[in-house]
Amino acid sequence: MNKLSPETEAPDAALLIAFANGDAGAAQLLAERLLSRTLAQAQRMLGDRAEAEDVAQEAMMRLWRIAGEWRQGEAQVSTWLYRVTANLCTDRLRRRKRSVPLDAVAEPLDTAPSVTARMQSEARAKALSDALAQLPPRQAEAVALRHLEGLSNPEIAAVMEIGVEAVESLTARGKRGLALILAGRREELGIEDDD
Amino acid sequence: MTIEPDKTEMDALDAMLADVAGKKAEPSADLLARVLADAANVQASAAARPQPRGASGFMSPLWAALGGWAGAGGLAAVAAAGVWLGIAPPAALETVTDVFFGSSVTLQVFSADDVLGMGI
Fold first, then answer.
1. Beta-carbon separation of A56 and B24 below 8 A
2. If you count residue pairs, one on A and one on B, with CB atoms under 8 Å apart, how many are there?
3. CB distance A61–B42 less than 8 Å?
4. Which of A115-124, B14-23, B36-45, B106-115 has the lowest mean pLDDT?
5. A140 vs B8, which has greater pLDDT?
6. Does position B38 have pLDDT exceeding 60, yes or no?
7. Interface contact B27-A186, CB threshold 8 A
8. Residue A176 class from Cβ within 10 Å (0-12 exposed, 13-18 middle, 19+ buried)?
9. B46 with A193: Cβ contact below 8 A
């Protein structure tokens, strides 16, 4: 059985401080730990691989830059990274909202069988992302953290730096808004009713 | 009037969220390389940045032990006070020195007119 080296077991914050002190190996370990999750978060929120890669690279770049100022115990690296990634994603969604009219998202484009067959999970992810873009940014962020990342309400509160009650309100309103935006696209997206 | 989604619409959304939530994303080798290159650049920039004055060199530990500029300022004030006490000791301090060292005594080794000490 392989035994992990002490450095491998080190907390993210300790690795970040080691990185700031010039340890190149710490960057490799942090990237292995955090990049995959950051990329996945961005891709789930944006529904677009290329955009998600750009966001993940930018989020990691911000992590490298803040390393020299990081104070151990102030915040968890993972919480900080969730926040930065979510903010970068909502910035992109906001730009997308300006370029994608509401009608293009809310109304079914085509419900022909051929189109329905083509609708794969990537298309659903993109449609969900477009719908998130139509929500107020804080609602989109809260819904994504709760329902796409699976964070608990207290965890989301820490990421968004708000109270738990505010999280509950944002996720509830955001989810209702999403349901209404997507209601017209169920058939197109291949989502069947449960009853 | 607020429009509320019905149960079917909420269930459909839940299914969609669950579908997307399950998606994994593994970074490509190219993305990992870009991220590590960024890290190397940031480290190189930080290393090339000049150190703040007083934070380098062999005197650095001593400087730090003295408390930097704040500590050195305090030491200078104490030294100045010592010099002043030497020049003009307050009466109370003179009493203390008298107790420890007694009154001053003048010793004359040579007579005033025998400067060379040869008795001539």
1. no
2. 121
3. yes
4. B106-115
5. A140
6. yes
7. no
8. buried
9. no
Q: What is the ipTM of this complex?
A: 0.81
CA distance B100 to chain A (A): 55
Among A151, A80, A150, A172, which residue's Cα sits nearest to residue B20? Answer: A150
Q: Which amino acid is at A54?
A: D
Average pLDDT over residues A23-48: 95
Which residue does chain A place closest to B8, by CA atoms?
A193
The chain A residue lying nearest B32, using CA atoms, is A31
Do residue B12 and residue A68 have CB atoms under 8 angstroms apart? Answer: no
Cβ contact A127:A120 at 8 Å: no
Q: Using CA atoms, how far apart are residues A92 and A162, in angstroms rounded to an integer? A: 22
H helices of chain B, in order, are: 7-21, 29-48, 60-65, 68-87, 91-101
Distance from CA of A61 to the nearest CA of B (A): 6
Domain ranges of chain A: 10-189
**Residue B84 or B57, more confident:** B84
Q: What does pTM read for this prediction?
A: 0.68
B16–A124 C-beta distance less than 8 A: yes
Give residue for tokens 């710490």. A26
- According to the model, what pLDDT value does residue A112 have? 53
Interval A68-112: pLDDT, tens = 998 877 789 999 999 999 999 999 999 987 776 555 554 444 555
Sign of CA dihedral A90, A96, A102, A104: negative
Q: If you classify domain A10-189 with CATH, what class do you get?
A: mainly alpha
Per-residue model confidence (pLDDT) at position A121: 73
- Structural tokens at position A92: 């992109």
Note the pLDDT of residue A7. Answer: 52
Looking at the predicted structure, is the pLDDT value of residue A164 above 90?
A: yes
